[in-house]
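[job 4417] fold queue: 2 targets
>>> target A
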Amino acid sequence: MIIKKYKNRKYYCIDKSKFVVLNFIIGLIKRKEEFVIVNNRNDDITKQVILKLLRRELRKNAIQKEKKNIL
């Protein structure tokens, strides 16, 4: 599956012919589906996007833990 990232931060799934959100990419990872994310110059940026998603999820989990500890 090929996903193209545009300069306006939107992701377009070429196989499905539609724009997708980051949660769609997270679903691909969880289902262990193969995919590639490319930028407007067709450079492979899959690793960078996955790292961005990982940081986002870790941050979200840390915030949830903090809220739990406060209560």
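>>> target B
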Amino acid sequence: MKKSNFIVMFVIALFLVAGAAIVQAADKVDLTGKWNLSVITPSGPGTPVFTLKQDGNKLTGTYKGYFGEAPVTGTVKGKGFEMKYTMAGVTTVYKGKVDGKKMSGNIDFGGKGTGTFTGNKE
């Protein structure tokens, strides 16, 4: 009887571990690639491009938009992310969520204004 209880407990534990791994894998995203964004700001709309590389939960890359180009750094947690760049002394922060090849979220222009964005991965 004790051996059968052990087997049942082992099988239950195996299912719990497998289920947790599946849930964790479903939350993982890969932002590596070229992202074409549409932004809405108090100054009007824009269409910046972010070229990103994800290494674990770390993001690096390049912003290219109306004001020029700048290096990008950031982090990824689950389906959420934060990325930022600095130009002319202003650090702009994008915070959002990823769903497959789409992203959306909010922008903070260094405390000087806010906006929203949506984007698609090429």
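[job 4417] complete. Note on B: The chain has two domains: 1-28, 31-121.
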